[in-house]
Structures are given as structure tokens and as C-alpha cells.
Amino acid sequence: MRRPSRRIGLIVPSSNTTMETEIPELLRRHEAEHGTGFTFHSSRARLHNVDAESLARMVEDSARCAAEVGDAEVDVLAYACLVAVMAQGTGAHVGIEERLRGALAGGASANAPMVSSAGALVRTFAALGMRRVAVVAPYMPDLTKLVVGYMEHAGVTVADSVSLSVSDNCAVGRLDPADLPRHVAGLDIGDVDGIVLSACVQMPSLPAVQQVEDSTGLPVVTAATATTREILLALGLPAVVPGAGAALGSRTPAAAAEAR
Predict the structure, then answer these.
(1) What is the model's pLDDT at position 257?
(2) CA separation for the pair 40, 145 (Å, rounded)
(3) Is there a binding annotation on residue 76?
């Protein structure tokens, strides 16, 4: 039986084309399994190139975005730009999530939970017991190094990573997820207990998530699946979505290993 729809608020980079496709797709799968419907309501902050100055400007603009999307009486608000938060310094998601909660205060969405993709990813590591990971990132190497440092400050060792060296955010959104298994094949995953298949909200990955989890026998998470997990938990809904990898509980790592 279909239940009343929940309103999902999203703050996204102006050039983002992925979070507004992957998160709705994940929640459509959830609706098919569990019955609760969702609608999506976005505000955009300007971002063209993925560099430190542009990312800092986007973070400054995020409070305006939160106030705008809050007018829609959303049930949860997600700040869907992982690297913009991570570029502000280790642990920055804590203060930024609190600031955006403050931007909702006194408005139509004053009681809406606030999550960020950066916070969601590191909290998902903890929830899944992922202490040593390999990472696929679309960024230039220096920015990947920053993201790796952020993860390691949160208690996760990054054993290996690959930088695809794409600085234009629209071009990141055009990367083919069918290439991700090849990128993973080039990583040293012999002693890791999980893979971050897309350390970016803009790099498409959903079609490859379950494929890579099944082929490697390792838990696979992405910025999008971790964010969706926290959206569902914030709404008090089961964080289980078919074909979406370990972050959304579709299969246990042991079951994935048996499928190899």
C-alpha cells in the first residue's frame, strides 16, 4: 500500500546532474519495496570548476540554499556536495551541518533533519565497519589527496586511490559508470575491507555499484548511496534498497562473495 510522500530537499552544485538522478532512482526502488513515496525539491549553488576557491564560494552560498528549499516544508534536507565540505578542513561536515540547521530555524522546515554527503560517507564507513578502503575519485590529484586526508582524519585508512583528473564539473557528470570496474581493477584491494566507488556526488556510479560489489566480494559505497542511506534513516525508514550495495543493505559482503 502506498504511504504519504516524503519531501526530500537537496542542495546541489549548479552544474550537478547526478544527485538529482541517482538519489531519486534509489528512492524509487525503495518505494517499490516499502511503499513510501518521495518528491524532490532542490536549490542550487554556483559551481563550474572543482577547485578550492570555487568550492569555498559554494559553501558560503549554502545557507541561502537551505533557507530557500526550506520554504517547501521538506521532511529532510541533504547538502549534496561532498568535496565542497571536505575542502573546508577535516571534520568540517559537523559545523556545516549545524550551520545549515540554523538556516532552517524559524522557517517552514525548522524541524527537518539535516545531512551532508561528506558526513554521510564517513558515518557510513563507521556503520559498516570499513576501516581500510580503496577510493575512485574524479578529481585532480591534489584534491583527491585532500579527500583522502579527510577520510583518514575520520579514522579510515585509504590503502589506494585513483584520480581521474577531471576538473570541469559538467565533464565529471558525463563520465561513463561502465568504466568504473576497470578503474577498480587497477587498484590494490588485496587488504581492504571496502571500496568507495565514487568519492564525488557528480560522478555517476549507480549502474556499477552492485556489479563491483559482486565481483570483488567487498562492500561498495558511493557518495550517493551513503547520502541516500542517511536520508532514509533520518526519516525513520529502512535503509534498504535493492541492487545498491552495502550502504543500502541490499546484500551482505558474505553473500556477494558467494556470488563470485
Answers:
(1) 41
(2) 33
(3) no
What ranges do the domains of the chain cover? 3-119+225-247, 120-222
The DSSP element (H or E) to which 45 belongs, if any, is strand 36-45
The mean pLDDT value of the chain amounts to: 90
121 marked ligand binding residue: no
Output the CA–CA distances (angstroms, integers) from residue 247 to 28, 41, 61, 69, in the order listed: 16, 23, 29, 26
120-222, which class in CATH? alpha beta
Give pLDDT, residue 169.
85
Specify the pTM.
0.90
CATH for the 3-119+225-247 domain, from 3.40.1360.10, 3.40.50.12500, 3.10.20.30, 3.40.50.2300: 3.40.50.12500
Residue whose entry in the numeric block shows the C-alpha cell 528549499: 69
pLDDT in tens, 178-199: 999 999 999 999 999 999 999 9
DSSP string computed for 94-140 = HHHHHHHHHHHTTSTTTT--EEEHHHHHHHHHHHHT--EEEEEE-S-
Which residues form the catalytic set? 81, 200
Determine whether the annotation assigns residue 156 to a binding site: no
Report the relative pairing of strands 132-137 and 3-13 from DSSP bridges: unpaired
CA distance 118 to 97: 10
In SS3 terms, 148-207 reads as HHHHHHCCCEEEEEEECCCCEHHHHHCCCHHHHHHHHHCCCCCCCCCEEEECCCCCCCHH
Rounded Cα gap, residues 143 and 156, in angstroms: 17
